[in-house]
From TrEMBL:
InterPro entries: AB_hydrolase_fold
Protein name: DUF676 domain-containing protein
Superkingdom of source: Bacteria
Gene3D superfamilies noted in UniProt: alpha/beta hydrolase (3.40.50.1820)
Organism: Rhizobium lentis
Length: 670
């Protein structure tokens, strides 16, 4: 990564100094409530909530963003718990079958105009940091509430926040009422948008609500008897799409990896005619895991695949991970636990089908290989991977660069989760290229050492299990057809801002030449740039320009055949919501290259010719496989569903299975 305008970078460092040092100067006589806020970059939706003028309902994620923003400005001793603690508290209530409603009533100080001007002068010219005095801060308050449903992500994309089922049991827990004003209310009035209007709700007392139909509901909260209204919050209510499971398993790994003993769960659906577990087919979820029963069912029942498997007599066991972001090797223990439990629950001659979608296929692969190496019976005749990154996955380095730069510089809550996902152990193990850094000025593009560690650990366990027939599906084309997103092109741009002006350009690999002018007008060019970010502070101080990926010739990953994801449109959507209007030239990019999903280990994911070429006669580690048409990642098409049903044996034939075939069968529909 390269940057320009050194004295401007110093100005931005002084902004960081303001944030860190302001807490040292603050005292209760100046900073009422113990929370200081002076953001460099502002989101209009969040600002309106803070200013108390928000009239349109927001979403639960906005509650989280705003709370994180205020917590960041809390001085030591302020009664504002960390966002992680808030999430932990909410999770405990959800585990009891409750939907927790979090309510924040937070008083904070923000610079008045004269003091803001002093801070701006310090940013531009340096010198002594202005000290707040009585009257230099404007006293404000934010009152906002939201039901904190569990958040689910697909790769980096936050899925729509929703509750599955028309029946809801709400609660306003006392440990999720965050108040630094001394008010400490014991009762609220809440309209759950079920047609009954406002009702009195006491702390820690559950309230049962039955909605007449699915749809978006607006939860509105006000202080009982005070008439003060919190910002309303939208929540999607969805009908339960998954059938009621016949069993639910809690899974505990029998192994520990790098100090992690993973846990998980499984939903079990009996096949047609079965009254107990008889013919188990186990499938593990993908990254980052933690999916609800509805989400898991919808993933595996596309094209009615799950229902067709049940109709054939298979008992479907859908495996989830409590922490899908930890090591693949650790979560392999969760799959091992499920396999061992399935064996114990069935007759001694029962053979299993075991696999997974995306990362789940990689976890299942490691689990079975580990069991074979350590002489642990797994009784598995068929292994199935669905668009699994056997040779690695690709998140556009330009997108990674933007997320890492903005997170390391601003700590903006809206990019906190994507940054955590990218930096997780599981992501580092799977990403072909990983963009990272310790500060926003030392961003680098390379290969995480955790990726090599996983490869070595797989090799130490035989790479793949040897006993089962190995079936694999790729969402990518096998004839070399590209996905329509061109290499070395501008795919996304955005400009805007309220306090700081931002201009962003994201380019596809292997990048373009970026031309940058410093504050003196000197020109510098950077080859192979994939992300260019320009920040300008108002009132002088020049500009700060960051270029990511310069000088590194990476293959044409975004264009390559493979399962795709909407990386660019997702980023553009978030920028639009944040007040930075975007232009999206291309929506998607390759996520799991075809040669990776089909484990064509004779080819090299770091070779452009291998990456974008036809599969041809390349050697696969799989017994039989099928490609597709560069569809979205883990999409089950009619053709791939039919192929899987054809490959798997019919009910009962898993017993006394003969040796798996050794010939490779290559197929592609399109």
């Amino acid at each position: 990564m390269a940057d320009t305008a050194g004295h401007t970078r110093a100005a931005f460092e002084r902004v960081r100094t303001i944030r860190s040092r302001m807490h040292e100067f603050a005292d209760p006589s100046i900073l009422h409530g113990g929370v200081f806020r002076w953001p460099l970059m502002r989101r209009p939706d969040v600002e309106s909530m803070l200013d108390g003028v928000q009239r349109d309902p927001v979403e639960p994620r906005h509650w989280r963003w705003l709370y994180s923003e205020l917590h960041r400005g809390a001085i030591a001793g302020a009664p504002v718990p960390s966002p992680a603690e808030i999430e932990a508290r909410a999770a405990r209530h959800r585990a009891c079958g409750l939907m927790p409603v979090a309510i924040a009533n937070i008083r904070y100080g923000t610079p008045c105009q004269a003091f803001a001007d002093e801070l701006s002068r310090f940013v531009r010219a340096g010198g002594s940091l202005p000290t707040p005095a009585p009257g230099s801060l404007e006293d404000k308050a934010a009152f906002f509430a939201a039901p904190l449903c569990k958040q689910e992500y697909h790769i980096l994309r936050l899925l729509p926040e929703r509750h599955d089922g028309l029946q809801m049991r709400y609660v306003v827990p006392s440990d999720l009422v965050i108040d630094n004003t001394g008010l400490t209310p014991r009762e609220f009035e809440i309209d759950f948008d079920d047609g009954t209007g406002y009702r009195n709700v006491k702390l820690d007392e559950p309230v049962d609500v039955m909605y007449p139909s699915a749809g978006h509901r607006c939860i509105r909260v006000r202080l009982a008897g005070a008439g003060r209204h919190a910002t309303g919050c939208r929540l999607a209510i969805a009908k339960q799409s998954a059938p009621i499971p016949d069993e639910t398993w809690s899974l505990y790994s029998p192994i520990t990896f790098q100090g992690v003993t993973a846990t998980g769960y499984a939903y079990v659906f009996y096949g047609s005619g079965n009254t107990t577990l008889t013919n188990p087919l186990l499938m593990a979820e993908g990254f980052p895991g933690g999916y609800s029963i509805n989400t898991l069912w919808n993933i595996f029942n596309e094209q009615n695949l799950a229902q067709d498997l049940l109709a054939q007599g298979y008992d479907l066991v859908l495996i989830g991970f409590d922490d899908g972001m930890t090591y693949v090797e650790a979560n392999a223990g969760v799959v091992m636990a499920a396999v061992q439990y399935a064996i114990n629950m069935t007759s001694s001659d029962t053979e299993l089908v075991v696999g997974g979608a995306s990362m789940g296929g990689l976890v299942a692969r490691y689990a079975l290989a580990y069991m074979e190496t350590n002489n642990i019976p797994h009784q598995t005749s068929y292994y199935v991977s669905y668009d699994t990154p056997h040779l690695g996955a690709s998140v556009p380095v330009g997108v990674q660069g933007f997320i890492q730069i903005v997170w390391l510089y601003t700590q903006d809550p809206s990019v906190e989760a994507p940054a955590a996902l990218l930096n997780s152990n599981a992501a580092q193990e799977m990403l072909i290229y990983w963009v990272n850094g310790t500060t926003y000025t030392d961003i680098t593009t390379g290969v995480s050492p955790l990726r090599a560690n996983l490869s070595n650990n797989l090799s130490a366990n035989g790479n793949f299990p040897k006993r089962p027939t190995l079936l694999g599906v790729s969402n990518g084309a096998t004839d070399g057809s590209l996905n329509g997103t061109p290499a070395s092109d501008y795919v996304l741009s955005a400009e805007g801002g309220i306090v700081a002006s931002l201009a962003l350009y994201v380019m596809t690999s292997p990048g373009l030449t970026a031309t940058v002018y410093d504050d003196e007008g000197n020109k510098t060019t950077f080859p192979n740039a994939v992300c260019q970010l320009k920040l300008e502070f108002p009132g002088g101080g020049g500009t700060f320009v960051t270029v990511c990926g310069e000088g590194q010739q990476t293959p044409e990953y975004e264009s390559a055949p493979g399962g795709t994801d909407t990386f660019f449109s997702t980023l553009g959507y978030e920028l639009d919501n944040g007040g930075y209007p975007s232009t999206i030239n291309y929506d998607s990019a390759c996520f799991v290259p075809t040669i990776s999903a089909l484990s064509l280990s004779s080819l090299d994911v770091y070779s452009n010719d291998d990456l974008i070429g036809s599969v041809g006669d390349a050697t696969s580690d799989l017994t039989a496989w099928i490609g597709s048409n560069n569809d979205k990642h883990v999409t089950i098409t009619a053709q791939t569903a039919a192929w899987l049903l054809q490959q798997l044996p019919s009910k009962g034939s898993l017993r006394a299975t003969t040796a798996p075939p050794t010939t490779r069968r290559v197929e592609q529909f399109g």
